[in-house]
Amino acid sequence: MLSTDLADLKVHMADNPGAVIEDVARERKVSPRSVIEALPSSMVHIGRGEHFAAAMQDIAEWGEVTLIVHTDDAIFEFTGAVPAGEIGRGYFNLMQPKGLHGHLRHERCAGVAFVERPFMGKSSAFVAFVNADGGIMFKIFVGRDETRALRTDQLARFRQLAARIAAQPAA
């Protein structure tokens, strides 16, 4: 990306931090990772992809969260607890027979991004697992309480995990 394009993207994301990452990436013909990296530094911290399994194991202890897979064709949302998993046969396997389960190509994870930003008039916090192509594998959002506020226990866990995994400690 040219430095002028990057500067323009940073200005755009500073002015519109709640923009849908995938939409901005498509409109500007950049990767979603580039959009995340263009957010103000106080809103994003990124760790290496090698921490995929550790992040998923920690998140499995958070309770009810929302996992989102956003493709060009659909946005899938799952609200519930993320199951614990283990690495085997080349995948990170989510270990439960019903609800959310499956096999994740953890070795394609090139970054674990922790994003805290406003979205649709509310605070939001999510972990984005970024693949080797700069795309987002999936996002896991901190849950909300009965008043629709971020759950304080999960937000604390989110920030602790960010401080352990990300290159810069969470703010």
From TrEMBL:
InterPro entries according to UniProt: Heme_Transport_Util_sf (IPR053733), HutX-like (IPR010413)
Q: Which domain of life is it from?
A: Bacteria
Q: Which NCBIfam families match?
A: HutX (TIGR04108)
Provide the protein name: Heme utilization carrier protein HutX
